[in-house]
Amino acid sequence: MNKAFASIAKVGICAVFATALFSCNNQQSTPSIASAGRDSTVANVETIVYVNADTLLEKYEYFKEIRTKLEDKAKKAQADLQSRSNAFQREVADYQQKAPTMSAADRQSTEERLARKQDELARHNQNASASFAQEEASENEKLYSKITDYLKKHAKENGYKLVLTYSASNPAVLYADESLEITNEVLTALNAEYAKEKKK
Looking at the whole model, is its pTM more than 0.85? Predict the structure, then answer.
């Protein structure tokens, strides 16, 4: 479950940036070539920036906390499942040891009981996985909202028309000049906002 969360979160945060930042840009009017008064390519490049998603995942305090919380929950769920599975295996081993001396009726009732327990164990595992996936989706939605809300505001305040995202694991941007990177200012502001929220 932990690996699944990490991979989903990485892909999810890249999608957050791609969607959120593109939508920010659509809300602002793009200057026409005639009104720019200079080469339109230069004007557009000056309003394009990018955020390194890998750095944000590593250093955004809110994300680090929800990741830890979900990892802890996954470990507990895994330990619980392992404990239940071990108990069931002990019952099966006990039955296999006693089966030769049991009557046919006792064997049949024991096998039916063990089959029911096996089904219950499978259902418990499915329910635990579904519950974890639901909580994970809810946390990713909150993360999406936090980043989207901040970046819309940040893009408007700074006149950005396009904000890209970069991730080593999913390199949609193959090259970007470091002077266009705004990761640290975004990260600092997001962490500051989250610190204020925690004090409330």
Answer: no
* pLDDT tens track for 32-83: 323 333 344 444 456 888 888 899 889 999 999 999 999 999 999 999 999 9
17: three-class secondary structure by DSSP = helix
166 has which bridge partners?
Answer: 52
Q: What is the dihedral of CA 188, 53, 23, 145, to 10 degrees?
A: -60
Query: Hey, is 172 helix, strand or coil?
Result: coil
Q: Does domain 2-27+41-199 have CATH number 3.30.910.20?
A: yes
Q: Which residues contact 167 (CB under 8 A, 6 or more apart)?
A: 10, 14, 52, 53, 54
What lies within 8 Å, CB to CB, of 114 at 6+ separation is 88, 91, 92, 95
Round to whole Å and give the CA distance between 169 and 9: 12
Can you tell me the distance from the alpha carbon of 74 to that of 113, in angstroms, rounded to the nearest whole number? 29
